[in-house]
Write a structure and sequence with these properties.
Elements (H helix, E strand, L loop, with lengths): L14 H4 L15 H11 L36 H9 L1 H6 L2 H6 L4 H8 L7 H6 L9 H8 L2 H13 L1 H11 L3 H12 L8 E2 H10 L4 H17 L8 E2 L12 H7 L15 H14 L9 E5 L15 E2 H6 L3 E2 L11 E5 L8 E4 L1 H9 L3 H14 L18 H13 L13 H13 L10 H8 L2
Antiparallel strand pairs: 1-2, 3-5, 3-7, 4-6, 6-7
Helix pairs in contact: 8-18, 9-11, 10-15, 11-18, 12-13, 14-15, 17-18
Amino acid sequence: MKRHIALTIGRAGAWLLAATLLAQGPAIAQSSGDGVSNFLNNIFAPKPGNSAQQPQAATGTTGPLPWTGEDGASGHPLMTASAIREAAANFDNCVAGMWPDAARRGVSQQSFRRYTAGLQPDLRIMDLMDSQPEFTKAIWEYLDILVNDNRMAKGREILAKYKAEFDAVEKAYGVDRYIVASIWGIESNYSTQMGDRSVLNSTATLACVGRRQKYFKDEFLVALEILHRGDLRPEQLRGSWAGAFGPTQFMPTAFKRYAVDADGDGRRDVVDNPYDLIASTANNLKKDGWQSGATWGYEIVIPRGFNFMLADRSKAMTLAQWDAQGVKRANGKPFPNGADKAYLLAPAGSEGPGFLMLQNFRVIMKYNPAEAYALAIGHFADRLRGGPPFVQPWPRQERVLSRTERLELQQLLAQRGFYRGTPDGQFGGQTREALRAFQVSAGLPADGFATAAVLDRLRGR
């Protein structure tokens, strides 16, 4: 959340983007991050193949694509085609079996019957859950997509239109309005790309079929709670295939923890009520540890000969200590508070810009645990505030490795004794450490950045 490779993301479920950029950390957070993941789903979703039929709602000619009928790429026993078909055939019984749990949560039998009537498994979700993209996007391409002039113009309109709401929320929660506006813009392009799947149907599918049933059972039951309580109407509870909904993409459980009724109308409406939306998003960040009046991080210049083994999330130092290592701000200004602790992120290796990440960056990563996402949020917020683009150029000459090449790189690292995991073409912390060890042995900067040149070096060319 280095290289242009697999990262785990989500706000709880958008592991497709997680599998698309910079892997760093746990696989699931709160939500599905689907302003981001909807976009990437469209790029990387598997092509329909042998479309074995399965029970699902009638979609018509313009509906969602059917399930491919193939085994999931994860290899999980619950993601085999036969297991998926078996679970789908038992879907009605699975949903009905969740009634006692719903009752314990205060959902009435009338509400349970009303909201579960007509649910059918959407097995296309199984393809999306286990999608393994052949090609990925470099971090600079990702930032180009998410931080652009059109989105910034819309963000400034939103900040002006809801100035009174942002004023009140900033005062009440101490969370930077530009960060909240940035999340709104990146997650849903300001309410224009929120997803159109039934959250109840998606989470019911995932609660009964596939490899994440325990996790999604809770999401499904909370979605029922939301509807029973009357915070949202069924037509509002629409979103991503993983169940994230609303302009800032709350998962049902995240909604339950963080949503607030800012205007006092008795409903926590994070879909169509901007005041509730802004306040709930700020409340989420505050409860996750947001530090009022502080920034998220600084673009820095990494000195020649730098020890990239220090570029690790677990190796935080004070800004004064980083300064002593020769790390300076890219704009030439001094660090405001030398006692602040930060870790160094080099998302494009030794040839790209570096960043020192403070506590608020870690808070953004709790919202969505991918460093690429959190960097986009922080940078977009700075741009909305009137700040400049990044000072240093990205190494745009580097091409992105295909999944086949990533798999080969892991295999070659394993053959040389550096990698002890199972090669799968998805890069995480273990691959990064193995690559760094190889780079040290080869006299290269140990930045963990997987380039075509490094792959050729492993091939012995």
